């Protein structure tokens, strides 16, 4: 990817050794036994995270164990992987005590894939520069995959992973953008497909938050020492070797070599359900602007604004901020009516000239009583049992990655970028 993390190219994918070759990513992988009736689903989690951070992997571990205990799903976390020894030990200890079973720990995920013959699936919660390779290798190993958002670091990795997933339809793949479980977007998709609002012309959404000191300034743990408690080169992996920097290890979302910041970490939450609901094809042109308006020490911008054009004729605007929490209401504008998605429900309101033909309606979103993250976890596990495709499929995630990649390029080059779905290539406009 240009400017935005040029080190993470295909040539360096698998640089730490043992990864899939680029020519192999679209090849069908191994077959594994699937969960049988009455048998627990056996999963592994890669990436526990530091206690000073949100630690999504450890959070997944805690909640999956709790959901199993509550009888929501028969599932066991049987293996944990992390390149930081203290965090690996923390994860294994919790998993064993919470489940009362033996849980194996691994520093190398490839060793785990090979050794755990009875494994059904893997949840990937590592930094985004590792997502693509770990998921591709999981496809080759015959595993079902829950891959945290963003699906990958850049578009090139996203398209490689997409090829691997499409070549292995026997495996379940789900990207971890849990807003996809909000029922209002499901209803919006149904209404748009039924032509209830006419041609969808323009949508808008945002993800904005604020902090006094700056975003992602997580505490640095002095117990993490390369060569002693951390395999730093393994952490760097596909992005290539780098000098040890504890700020990068604990705060990688602030740096363009490791993350697109707001664009990939926050905006995917709100763009994913809209892309899913709209069904307007691939993004074909993206323009992004922004800057450092408060947190000048962060390499990635703290304010971004995106304009996205789709191949079927639709424009989406997206605002993202870590220096102001006031966003815009999520909505879809159609030729005949509009869908308001800012609250819990989906509200259809006709355009003035169609008011006598279309009735305003509110479609309440039914609640299961679970939060959307637990809904998304259980959805993946349920799909592992039913073998039905998951919401959060690879095509939706790949389309979102076109937005992420092109927006990051646009920010750093101050130019619009295009994507050609016929060649799957990006170009400067």
Annotated CATH homologous superfamily of the largest domain? NAD(P)-binding Rossmann-like Domain
Inertia-based shape: globular
N-end to C-end Cα span: 15 Å
Percentage of residues assigned to helices:
25-40%
**H-E string:** EHEHEHEHEHEHEHHHEEEEEEEHHEE
In spatial order, strands of the major sheet run 14-13-12-11-7-10-9-8-15-16
State the domain count.
2
Beta-strand content: 15-25%
Structural class: alpha/beta
The CATH class of the largest domain turns out to be: Alpha Beta
Q: Segments where pLDDT lies below 50 for 5+ residues?
A: 1-18
CATH topology of the largest domain: Rossmann fold
Structure commentary:
The chain is α/β, with parallel strands linked by helices and 429 residues long. It folds into two domains: 188 residues, Rossmann fold (3-Layer(aba) Sandwich); 172 residues, Dihydrodipicolinate Reductase, domain 2, CATH 3.30.360.10. It is built from eleven helices and 16 strands. Strands 14-13-12-11-7-10-9-8-15-16 form a ten-stranded mixed beta sheet, with helices on one face. The chain has a six-stranded parallel beta sheet with strand order 3-2-1-4-5-6, sandwiched between helices. Strand 9 and strand 10 form a beta hairpin. Helix 1 runs parallel beside helix 2. The two termini are 15 Å apart. The N terminus is likely disordered.
Set out the fold topology:
Blueprint: E1 41-46, H1 56-69, E2 75-81, H2 85-99, E3 104-106, H3 109-115, E4 121-124, H4 128-140, E5 144-148, H5 155-166, E6 173-176, H6 183-193, E7 200-208, H7 232-236, H8 246-251, H9 262-278, E8 283-291, E9 303-310, E10 314-321, E11 331-334, E12 337-340, E13 346-350, E14 361-363, H10 372-386, H11 394-413, E15 417-420, E16 425-428
Parallel strand pairs: 1-2, 1-4, 2-3, 4-5, 5-6, 7-10
Antiparallel strand pairs: 7-11, 8-9, 8-15, 9-10, 11-12, 12-13, 13-14, 15-16
């Amino acid at each position: 990817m240009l400017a935005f993390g040029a080190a993470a190219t295909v040539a360096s994918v698998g640089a730490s050794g043992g990864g899939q070759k680029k020519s192999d990513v679209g090849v069908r992988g191994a077959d594994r036994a699937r969960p049988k009736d009455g048998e627990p689903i056996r999963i592994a989690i890669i990436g526990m995270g530091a206690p000073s951070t949100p630690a999504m992997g450890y959070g997944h571990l805690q909640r999956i164990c709790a959901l199993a205990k509550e009888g929501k799903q028969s599932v066991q976390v049987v293996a944990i992987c992390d390149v930081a020894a203290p965090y690996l030990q923390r994860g294994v200890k919790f998993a064993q005590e919470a489940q009362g079973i033996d849980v194996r720990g691994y520093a190398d995920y490839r060793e785990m894939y090979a050794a755990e013959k009875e494994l059904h699936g893997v949840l990937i919660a590592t930094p985004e520069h590792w997502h693509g390779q770990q998921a591709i290798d999981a496809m080759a190993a015959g595993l079902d995959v829950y891959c945290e958002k963003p699906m990958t670091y850049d578009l090139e990795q996203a398209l490689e992973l997409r090829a691997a997933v499409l070549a292995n339809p026997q495996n379940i793949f789900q990207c971890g953008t849990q807003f996809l479980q909000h029922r209002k977007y499901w209803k919006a998709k149904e209404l748009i497909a039924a032509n209830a609002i006419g041609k969808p012309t323009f949508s808008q959404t945002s993800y904005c938050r604020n902090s006094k000191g700056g975003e992602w300034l997580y505490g640095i743990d002095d117990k993490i020492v390369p060569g002693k408690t951390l395999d730093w080169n393994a952490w760097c992996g596909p992005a290539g070797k780098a000098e040890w920097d504890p700020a990068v290890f604990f705060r990688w979302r602030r740096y363009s070599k490791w993350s697109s910041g707001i664009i990939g970490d926050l905006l995917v939450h709100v763009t994913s359900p809209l892309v899913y609901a709209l069904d307007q094809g691939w993004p074909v042109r993206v323009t992004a602007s922004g800057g450092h308006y408060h947190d000048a020490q962060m390499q990635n911008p703290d304010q971004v604004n995106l304009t996205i054009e789709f191949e079927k004729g639709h424009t989406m605007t997206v605002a993202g901020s870590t220096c102001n929490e006031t966003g815009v209401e999520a909505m879809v504008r159609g030729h005949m009516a509009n869908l308001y998605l800012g609250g819990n429900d989906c509200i259809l309101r006709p355009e003035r000239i169609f008011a006598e033909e279309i009735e305003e309606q509110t479609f309440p979103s039914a609640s299961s009583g679970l939060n959307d993250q637990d809904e998304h976890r259980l959805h993946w596990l349920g799909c592992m049992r039913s073998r039905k495709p998951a919401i959060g499929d690879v095509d939706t995630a790949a389309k979102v990655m076109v937005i992420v990649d092109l927006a990051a390029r646009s920010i750093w080059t101050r130019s619009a970028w295009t994507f050609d779905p016929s060649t799957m290539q990006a170009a400067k406009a």
